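Practice problem 4.
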């Protein structure tokens, strides 16, 4: 599971207090160019790897090998997102690099924006809204330019996919009125496979399992075989995506040799075994080993992980994040983890839905050294893994905040939104003074306490089975509500983690502003909300707003034709968050699909049109793109004459397109591999 920043204009600076990387070398931080360009609705940001030079040579090698492993799977995400993506990207890469026509031509300029959008989203559908990009250039111009630059000839099917807005218009469709598998363009299922067939297929598969706990369907594509029945094509070394997976394995083998300790090496070996066999029991064994390997300074995520891109939530999207522990901050955060049991017992949830013992919660602030696949260029700011509930219950989970990514956001965000949308000066001052710590603790509580809390009633299926397409949004709501309920708890002050009760207020100000208004910047006029995190935030915000109306807990104030959110009773608001937390936990624990659907559909999907238009027009003048993406540093091995690596140096590329072309050349392992 993962946490995203609310958007580039988020109020809260997530600077990490003492030990913040930039404090060590303020000069360098000042000179570093954080943002390179804006295009479409996006801003490109750079990030640094502070402290890399202090690692041992073996640690540097480990980071290098793991980032290479991550990048080696880059093509997988493109193909998972849509079956024509790789061919289209190849054509785009070619034309972008080789075009020698008129660069003042509008077609060319529109093409450059389209290319960057595709790279940013790992495909031709928007990474967040899931809508297909509309090329602003002429189809004839494109075909001609492609031929003239010696590029590949595209089939009619591929051109139609690019230029016909009605074909595969949406990557993920969650509308219950439609067949979500048929209607979604995402490539986890063959183009003629229906949702009903997939559910029937996995019901049958599940019945035949020796081990019912495995993450069924996580690493495969479901296609129709010649006799009309469904079958799985498994992602593995000699299966689907084999050429990329074999490259990943090669780098992971090198990583084993320089692992920091035996636990880490053991986990890496199991990951290799999983990639070789595609065996889901190996995947679970790997996750148990990985979550137990907590001693090293280097950690990583690499495989088919999050299921947000699958309308049925079976299929894991490929991703990789390589991380270096940020010790000073993590020590502070561990105080929170040490008190996990207190939070569980004090939570508003019903006694029968609480865990008796909360085990193995680990939380770190980390420094990212490289990202790929589903985590790049758009990245989460927090991650909590593994996702398998039984492993989390028995062995715990690892939770990280990506500190230098947040620092990158922080250094490029606009201050204007805070001024424009805050109800009064007090709120602005509060955000400036306490926004940093409020955001930090909301993230920490969400990840460490939130996702780790609660239990299912004996005999109730997993949320994916019971809550279906609402499972993700409800899980995020549950974690957010734990954060919101506890961030105003005096316990945080008692533990010395929070200095003032203003911190909790700042958190509430920000949450409602985003949930009721600001996140609508990401929605096109006339559309409803599809994305799980956004559905969650609007559901939570509009539910507490409605329930608190009679007591004027939260008031929408009109002033000079503009709407502002005024929280008038923070204590009662906390009570409402607590009440909703109890209900959302009950829904998960009991698998109450109807109640879950009513919450999400009733509060989280439909957009208030007047507010939406207002938010769009007020934020337009501020010129802050709603999405940020990151240019990876480049790790360069320094080699001795005998070829051995003597050092790894870090370079900071400053051009997004160049990095994408470089990656296409170096890691295009699946080009020509798909049908
Ligand atoms: Zn989450």
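Answer key:
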């Amino acid at each position: 599971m993962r946490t995203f920043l609310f958007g580039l204009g988020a109020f809260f600076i997530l600077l990490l207090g003492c030990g913040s990387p930039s404090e060590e070398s303020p000069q360098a931080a000042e000179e570093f160019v954080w943002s390179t360009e804006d295009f479409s609705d996006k801003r490109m940001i750079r990030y640094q790897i502070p402290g890399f030079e202090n690692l041992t040579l073996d640690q540097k090698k480990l980071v290098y090998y793991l980032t290479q492993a991550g990048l080696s799977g880059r093509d997988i995400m493109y193909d998972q997102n849509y079956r024509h993506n790789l061919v289209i990207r190849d054509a785009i890469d070619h034309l972008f690099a080789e075009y020698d026509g008129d660069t003042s031509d509008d077609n060319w300029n529109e093409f450059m924006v389209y290319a960057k959008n595709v790279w940013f989203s790992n495909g031709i559908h928007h990474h967040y809204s899931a809508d297909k990009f509309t090329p602003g250039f002429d189809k004839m111009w494109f075909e001609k330019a492609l031929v003239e630059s010696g590029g590949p000839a595209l089939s009619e099917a591929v051109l139609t996919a690019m230029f016909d807005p009605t074909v595969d218009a949406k990557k993920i469709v969650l509308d219950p009125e439609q067949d979500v598998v048929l209607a979604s363009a995402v490539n986890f299922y063959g183009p003629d496979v229906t949702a009903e067939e997939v559910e029937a297929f996995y019901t049958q598969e599940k019945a035949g399992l020796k081990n019912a706990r495995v993450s069924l369907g996580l690493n495969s594509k479901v296609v129709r075989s010649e006799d009309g029945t469904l079958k799985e094509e498994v992602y593995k070394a000699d299966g689907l995506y084999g050429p990329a997976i074999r490259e990943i394995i090669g780098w992971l083998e090198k990583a084993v040799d320089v692992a920091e300790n035996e636990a880490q090496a053991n986990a890496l070996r199991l990951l290799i075994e999983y990639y070789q066999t595609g065996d889901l029991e190996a995947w679970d064994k790997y996750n148990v080993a990985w979550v137990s390997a907590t001693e090293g300074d280097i950690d990583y995520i690499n495989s088919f992980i999050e299921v947000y891109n699958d309308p049925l939530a079976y299929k894991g999207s490929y991703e990789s994040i390589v991380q270096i522990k940020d010790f000073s901050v993590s020590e502070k955060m561990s105080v929170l983890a040490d008190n996990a049991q207190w939070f569980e017992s004090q939570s508003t949830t019903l006694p029968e839905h609480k865990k008796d013992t909360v085990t193995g919660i680990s939380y770190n602030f980390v420094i990212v050294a490289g990202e790929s696949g589903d985590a790049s260029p758009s990245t989460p700011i927090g991650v909590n893994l593994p996702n398998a509930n039984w492993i989390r219950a028995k062995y715990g989970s690892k939770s990280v905040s990506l500190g230098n990514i947040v620092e990158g956001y922080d250094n490029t965000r606009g201050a204007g939104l805070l001024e424009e949308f805050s109800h009064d000066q007090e709120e602005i001052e509060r955000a400036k003074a306490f926004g940093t710590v409020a955001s930090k603790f909301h993230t920490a509580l969400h990840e460490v306490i939130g996702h780790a809390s609660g239990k299912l009633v004996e005999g109730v299926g997993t949320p994916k089975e019971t809550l279906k397409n609402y499972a993700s949004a409800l899980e995020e709501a549950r974690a957010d509500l734990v954060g919101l309920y506890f961030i105003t708890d005096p316990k945080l002050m008692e533990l010395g983690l929070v200095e003032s009760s203003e911190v909790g207020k700042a958190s509430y100000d920000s949450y409602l502003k985003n949930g009721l208004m600001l996140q609508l910047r990401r929605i096109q006029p006339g559309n409803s909300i599809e994305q799980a995190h956004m559905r969650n935030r609007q559901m939570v915000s509009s539910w507490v707003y409605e329930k608190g109306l009679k007591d004027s807990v939260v008031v929408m104030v009109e002033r000079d034709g503009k709407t502002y959110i005024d929280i008038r009773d923070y204590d009662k608001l906390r009570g409402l968050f607590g009440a909703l937390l109890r209900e959302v936990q009950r829904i998960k624990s009991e698998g109450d699909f109807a109640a879950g659907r009513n919450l999400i559909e009733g509060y989280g999907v439909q957009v208030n049109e007047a507010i939406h238009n207002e938010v769009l027009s007020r934020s337009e003048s501020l010129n802050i793109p709603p999405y940020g993406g990151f240019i990876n540093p480049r790790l360069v091995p320094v080699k001795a004459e005998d070829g051995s690596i003597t050092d790894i140096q870090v370079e900071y590329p400053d051009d997004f397109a160049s990095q994408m072309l470089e990656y296409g050349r170096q890691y295009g392992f699946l080009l020509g591999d798909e049908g």
